[in-house]
Amino acid sequence: MKILILNSSPRRNGNISKMLEAMKQEIECCNAEAVYVRVPELKVRPCIGCMKCRCSLRCCLPEDDAQRVLQSIRDADALIIGAPCYWGNMPGELKVLFDRMVYGMMGENSLGMPLALHKGKKVIIVSTCTTPYPFNILYNQTRGVVKALKEILKWSGFKVVKAIEKGGTRKHPDLTSKEISHCKRAVHKLL
């Protein structure tokens, strides 16, 4: 089994990175393959909205990391996406990446209705923010990230099997052993 991990946090030693690293280790302990991608390090030009990809099933922009990540998604059996909260949503780099890959995530039938291209694949979403619990959920901070990603993933055919939301990272910047264990246990929902 191959699991793709997309880390959209620019902080190499932040909570998202630590949570995803724990999940990566658990995947490898279960004799599965983990492919780890740091989204902020990718070179991805923004979508120009030409819609040509919908007909040609390829992006008209020169090849960059968007096409490589899309191929990794196609090759993966499951996905883990880590995204810190930026204004109640995912970081811009992650959104730009998904915008550029739309033709490989979701197709259309003859009436223009969406067709999921990754039906049956599972995904875990991990999000953090500085807003304390439970306000990170009530004020749609981490919940906003999860909601936005669920929308993209739903139309792509992914089944969200777990969403892990950690609030209050300013006051509690370190992960507890219980939180690390929670991340590791979540991996088993993908295997």
UniProtKB/TrEMBL annotation:
Pfam families attached to this UniProt entry: FMN_red
InterPro entries xref list: Flavoprotein-like_sf, FMN_Rdtase-like_dom, ISF_SsuE-like
UniProt keyword annotations, A-Z: Flavoprotein, FMN
Location of the NADPH-dependent FMN reductase-like domain: 1-132
Protein name: Flavin reductase
Species of the source: Bacteroides clarus YIT 12056
